[in-house]
Amino acid sequence: MGALTVSEQSPSRLSPTLIILLVLPLLGIVGALLTIFASGGLAPPDPTPQPLPTLPVSLLINRSAPNFELAALEGDSLRLSSLRGRVVFLNFWATWCEPCRRELPTFQTFMQSQGEDGAVILAINNGETPEQITEFLAENNVGGIPVLLDSDFALQDRYEVSFFPTTFVIDAGGVVRDVRLGEITLEDLNTYTEQYGAS
Q: Rounded CA gap, 134 and 72, in Å?
């Protein structure tokens, strides 16, 4: 029996090498998609900054706090350098942030105890309208805290704030002494004031 000619051969089958070359790229694509979905890469970003248990040491600690001037909720503007000689707490917050909401009564109590020349909390609101903030403060019966408007997030970016609430502790000489992530207590505020106030 002679050798088969091309036309007489049985239907050709794909070689194992060709199958591997076709399947491997497909497996790679499927694996990449699964990784993206598992990491939430295709999910819409969560607009709420999530607090972390610790905050990396800020490059601003033990350096002069960057000066700024922002419009206040009441309509005037305030420059950080005008508060030199007083301990200043820069608190970055928003009305939708639950720990921020819990802090506000504490801030009100603290500010009432400080008087005109004592420590001051500057509540830096990020990206919300004066109407939103005013309505929120009225609904929660909170007042006596200077609220400044960082409407374009420029100050948040300058201070490299990623999570709310974040509080910068600035001593009487205008130097950043600590950065606190998350809710701050009345005891914390009093301790910082005693530690970093003018001697």
A: 12
